Structure formats: structure tokens, C-alpha cells
């Protein structure tokens, strides 16, 4: 990949595919964690959406040279892949207990313990954003910042629950193929890239479709069930995090595509977070999976967001930062939305405007 002006040379493909895969045993079963970068640097934890893994959810972002230079220069990346979503995964046996969203959040804590990590930055997409937000609510001292893409934060509505219930039945009987894959592609991408009778679907959609074909339907069912659970039992249902959001004090940057099915959830979440620490970026002509569809639109907001932690792209700061992130040592003006370069109301941006 060619370098852009103002960015140091970085072999994105070598770094991105040069990570090490770690099977991590947690109290709720094993998960796969792929580690990229210098482990002496601050940690960035990622968590994908339903039916995706880190390759299909974050590849576009890390293949964007400017974003890669920003993130890989400042962080060691720990990609958590939900159980059964890793490449080549076998079907999870039916006698393995199904997990709740709280179990998934607790697994994140177990991953941090496994690697000896203290406080971390988090990046999640939709269902993964919910898991990491719940993790932040349960383990507030372990989360220094949240970067969320098309996040969920409320309990499933009746319409969402019913739609996902139908999808679960299709997954169970048909696996990941045909109509099921189309439903997932609609969840992730805007109409513009999915194509139509006149326009072919884009390469990113074709690549995602190919990866979905390789996913085990029963494994996807387990993750989707956890996210879709509206049980009356507080121990297993997907909670409404509205009240918990009010208690969060970590800085939060939210991206959402204007055509995302979860646009209303993202806006709702922004209104409930402390306005001093939160900003919303709305990306025009984009679906939920901003990290793949328009990764360039994330660059400038992320750059300003990370400046609040004393982090820069390597062209601006040649030495590699190795100190732990500590927002409590940051001057108050750096915590303001203005310091992030974004406004509290949604800003509409296209990737072409900021590349």
C-alpha cells in the first residue's frame, strides 16, 4: 500500500497478518485473541459484531494506512473473537452452555487478566460495542476510553426481538447461506455498496459474503441469542444500559452510519452519556459497519480523540508512547468535545472529504 502525505511508512499487511493467535480459557469457555504490535504499549481491545470476527470486522480500518499508523503506533491491539467465530471453527457442541451478555463481558475481563492488562481502550461494533459498554459499566476502573461503531445500548425492542428470532430459526435450519447472509449484509452495509439491479455489489460486500459462508450457523446462533435475549430474568437478559451510561466517566467516541439500522440507538446513547466526555460522528451514505465501508471517515475524529490521551500519529510524535493511558492526568480542556475536533450534535462527513 502506498503512503499518504504526512504519514510515516508502515507495512500494514505485514503487521496486520503478523499477529499471534492466543487461545484464552475464560471462566465461560475459550475465546481466540489475536495480538498485534508491541505488548509494552497501551492496549486496545476490539470486539466484532454478530457473525463477524476481527478479520471481517476491522480489516478495512487497519488496511487504511493512516488509521493503521495511528493505532499501531500507539497501541498493542488485542482482537477478541467470540467463541466459534474464528476462521475454521468447528460447530460448538450442543452440551456446551449458552452464554449471556454478562458472561461475554466477564470473558473480556478474563482476557485482560490472562495478558496481565490493567486499564485499556476499547473498540466495538454493534453487538461487540454492547459487550464492551457493558464491560465498561461492570469494570469501570479497567476502561479508559470507548470507541464504538453503531452501538446497541438498550434492551431489544419487540420488532428487533422478532426479527432476530426469525433469523435464529433460519440459522438453525439453514446455516449461514442465502437469505440468512442477505439479512446480515443488510445489517452491516448500506444499499449503495450492496448493489442493485443496475450496480454490482462492492468488493467489501463480496468479501464479507464469502466469510459468512464459512461461518458455522450454530455458533452464530449462540452469539445472536445472547444479544437478542429479552428474558425477564435479569441474570441472562440483554440489559438496558441507559442508567449505567450516566455513571460512566471514560471518554466515548461514537460512529454511526446515517443508513445504519442502529442509528437511533447510537443517538440515544449519546444523549445519555456525560456530554463533557462524549461525541457522535454520523457518517453519510454508510451502513453500520463503518470500519469496513468508510474507514477513512473514522481517522480524523479518532486522531483528535486520542490527542486527549497525549497520542499522535507517528509523523507528529516520533517516539513511541509506552506510558499507560491516564485520563485523570489530562487537563480539563482536552476532555472537551471541542478538543476532539467534533461537535456534540451529529456531524455528517464523507470519507472523500477527509482523506
TrEMBL record:
InterPro entries named in the record: AB_hydrolase_fold, NDRG
UniProt xrefs under SUPFAM superfamilies: alpha/beta-Hydrolases (SSF53474)
Keywords carried by this UniProt record: Membrane, Transmembrane, Transmembrane helix
Transmembrane segments: 114-137
Family: Belongs to the NDRG family.
Protein name (database record): Pollen-specific protein SF21
Amino acid at each position: 500500500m502506498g503512503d499518504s502525505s504526512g504519514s510515516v511508512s508502515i507495512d500494514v499487511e505485514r503487521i496486520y497478518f503478523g499477529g499471534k493467535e492466543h487461545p484464552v480459557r475464560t471462566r465461560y469457555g475459550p475465546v481466540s485473541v489475536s495480538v498485534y504490535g508491541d505488548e509494552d504499549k497501551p492496549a486496545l481491545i476490539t470486539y466484532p459484531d454478530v457473525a463477524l470476527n476481527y478479520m471481517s470486522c476491522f480489516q478495512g480500518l487497519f488496511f487504511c494506512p493512516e488509521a493503521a499508523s495511528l493505532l499501531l503506533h500507539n497501541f498493542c491491539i488485542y482482537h477478541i473473537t467470540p467463541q466459534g467465530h474464528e476462521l475454521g471453527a468447528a460447530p460448538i457442541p450442543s452440551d456446551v452452555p449458552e452464554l449471556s451478555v454478562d458472561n461475554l463481558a466477564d470473558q473480556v475481563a478474563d482476557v485482560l487478566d490472562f495478558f496481565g492488562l490493567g486499564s485499556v481502550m476499547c473498540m466495538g461494533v454493534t453487538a461487540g460495542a454492547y459487550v464492551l459498554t457493558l464491560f465498561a459499566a461492570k469494570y469501570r476502573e479497567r476502561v479508559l476510553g470507548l470507541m464504538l461503531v453503531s452501538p446497541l445500548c438498550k434492551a431489544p425492542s419487540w420488532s428487533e426481538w422478532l426479527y432476530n428470532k426469525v433469523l435464529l430459526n433460519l440459522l438453525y435450519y439453514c446455516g449461514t447461506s442465502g437469505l440468512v447472509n442477505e439479512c446480515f449484509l443488510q445489517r452491516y452495509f448500506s444499499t449503495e455498496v450492496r448493489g442493485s439491479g443496475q450496480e454490482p455489489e462492492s468488493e467489501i460486500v463480496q468479501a464479507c459474503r464469502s466469510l459468512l459462508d464459512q461461518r458455522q450457523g450454530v455458533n452464530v446462533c449462540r452469539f445472536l441469542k445472547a444479544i437478542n435475549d429479552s428474558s425477564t430474568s435479569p441474570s441472562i437478559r440483554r440489559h438496558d444500559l441507559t442508567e449505567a451510561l450516566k455513571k460512566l466517566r471514560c471518554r466515548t467516541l461514537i460512529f454511526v452510519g446515517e443508513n445504519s439500522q442502529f442509528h437511533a440507538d447510537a443517538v440515544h446513547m449519546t444523549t445519555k452519556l456525560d456530554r463533557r466526555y462524549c461525541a457522535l460522528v454520523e457518517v453519510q451514505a454508510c451502513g453500520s459497519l463503518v470500519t469496513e465501508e468508510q474507514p477513512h471517515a473514522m481517522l480524523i475524529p479518532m486522531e483528535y480523540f486520542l490527542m486527549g490521551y497525549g497520542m499522535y500519529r507517528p509523523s507528529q510524535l516520533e517516539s513511541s508512547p509506552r506510558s499507560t493511558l491516564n485520563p485523570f492526568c489530562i487537563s480539563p480542556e482536552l476532555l472537551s468535545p471541542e478538543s476532539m475536533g467534533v461537535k456534540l450534535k451529529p456531524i455528517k462527513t464523507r470519507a472523500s472529504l477527509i482523506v
